[in-house]
Structure formats: C-alpha cells, structure tokens
Amino acid sequence: MDKSELLAPNKPHPLFKLATELGPLLIFFFVNSRFNLFAATGAFMVAVVVAVAVSYLVTRHVPIMALVTALVVIVFGTLTLVLHDETFIKMKPTIIYCLFAAILGGGLLFGRSFIAVMFDQIFNLTPRGWRKLTLRWALWFIAMALLNEAIWRTQSTDFWVAFKVFGMVPLTMLFAFTQMPLVKRHHLEPATLEASETEAGDVSKG
Fold this sequence. Notes:
The chain is an all-alpha fold. The protein contains ten helices and no strands.
C-alpha cells in the first residue's frame, strides 16, 4: 500500500460525524438539567476533547472547525470554572461565530474562500459562487453571534442551554440546506483532481 494512502484521512460515516458533533452538546444539556451549568461546562469540556480524539483515531483527521471550537471551549470553559462565572461559557458561541465570520471575511479580502477548509468539504465552484457562498456564511455567523448574545442576556440559563443544543444546531443545518441551490448553480466539474485542489476557494477570478 502506498504511504500516501496510509496517511490519507478515512471518510467518516455521516452518522459518526453527527455523533461527534452533537454528542458533547447533548451531554452539556443533560448534565445541566441534572446538576448546574458549572458541572455541565466541565462535562462539556471532557466530551469535546474525547470527541476530537475519537475523530482522529477513527479518521486520522480532525476538521479545522472542530479543532478551533474545542480550543475555544477549553479556554472559556476553564475561565468559567476557575472564576465561577457563567458569562464566559455563555459568550463562547459568540466568540466562535465572530471568529469564523472574521476568517471568512478576511479570506475574501485576499481573494480566497475558506469555506471548504472550515467545513472539511470538497467544493468546486465558480469564483462568483465562492464569493456568494462565503459572504452568506460570514453574515450567518454574525447573525448567530448576535442571536446568542440576545438569548443569554435576556433569558434564563436553562433556556439558553436548550436553545444552544436544540435551536442553534437545527438553524445552522437548515441554513446549510438552503445554500444547496447556490452550490449546484455554481458547481463546476474539475478537469483533473489537481486542478480542483489548486483552484478550490479562489474568488480572485471572474
């Protein structure tokens, strides 16, 4: 077997990917419902680390979004527990969404789209398609950051936890689904795999 094949990431089953993404959130919700937000934060931190480790062991690869999210969870979770202040874990989604929006917006300024890298997906779109898709996701992340701020500042902790698990995730999945017409409309069939990998995310043309 070729060495590159040994190092190449395995394609995970969609249900496996869903489990590693939703599992920590469900644990967060369950522990909060039984104990309190601080216990839930500790359990969430452990679950996120386990999810990343399992993902790497199974696929030999961890998506960039998962790594960034795990890092922010650890940092803000630690601040929450050490300072015994709920504010940090409640602001965590806001920080993550703003960070992703900044990455996408900054990429556009330099003629690149980091959508494929962030979501660990393979796309081959026209430059116009890349620009539209990237801008839409950047605006979506900003909207979600504002929504998270509005929810945690005006609602109870239990409501915020429930919305984080059962509101933000479905809303994001629904938004991703609504972008499929744009992806299909601007999809290109690459002449070669090398050409696809080289031009992926290039918004400087067209």
